[in-house]
Design brief:
Aminopeptidase; globular; seven-stranded mixed β-sheet; about 35% helix; 14 strands; 2 domains; 12 helices; alpha+beta
Length: about 300
Amino acid sequence: MITESAINTIIWKPITLSDRELFEKTGENKEGIAMFGFPSLFFWKNYYKTSFAVINGNIVCRGLSDSGKCVIYFPRGLNNMTEDTVRSAVDSCDGKVRLYPLTEDTANKIKEAIPNSNVKLLDGKCEYVYNQSDLANLAGKKYHAKRNHIAKFDKNYVYEYIEVTNDNLDMLAECAEHLFNKIENSPKEEYTAIKCAIEHFGDLGLRAALIKVDGKYVAYSIGSRINGNTADIHFEKADRDFEGSYAKINNCFAKNAWQDVLFLNREEDLGLEGLRKAKLSYYPAKLNQMYSIEIF
């Protein structure tokens, strides 16, 4: 049983690039959950004030929610379901704690193990996971509209699809800055995360591509592999003045960058109805529905 003195000696550390190997060795992201990927944890660490500790051989991350409450990310490792691991992480925070992201099965198991906990479905925290082959090929009647969008783009514009490498990384930075300024109401905190991703592109094992039309930056996409068969599309932006640009970068990136995975996790809809409809229009193969537990 974890003692009070043991809880007090838990050391929470900021996440650094040197921790990537530790994260990847401690526990595979079998569920393919985007938030569990080291790149996402790293380039959002300043916004969410994320730190981590090793408890019972498991990696446990904690941070702050948008409302400023303490959040414990579900432990990663072989012993992550033990009550001691969960309880010791929770007890290191003062007051009410939210533990997430959890699958429904995991949430219910923790609720059984820990009294005074409340399971809650997280609206807007559902991750949309697609077959790579579906997004790459857009085959069948259900993707007819998407193929039309791409056909219009191909007809109207002479474009370049450019794979990003360390040698042309400056192009990605320029493209990201251009679209941040071009797209109305672009979140500054997201752009900060994007700049962090670009700055540490190689160290984080990222892949990216961009599209130019007549020398103008039109779209880009950035992703990383989060387990043996799944990639996470972290960021994707396009200039809507170029009709079909979103459909084009989506299709090109899936087709050219991710032939070595089965699934593409295109993350959450953030509770936005328009974004939800857009994600559903690509017919996800599965939904990673997220739950949380509040522990008092």
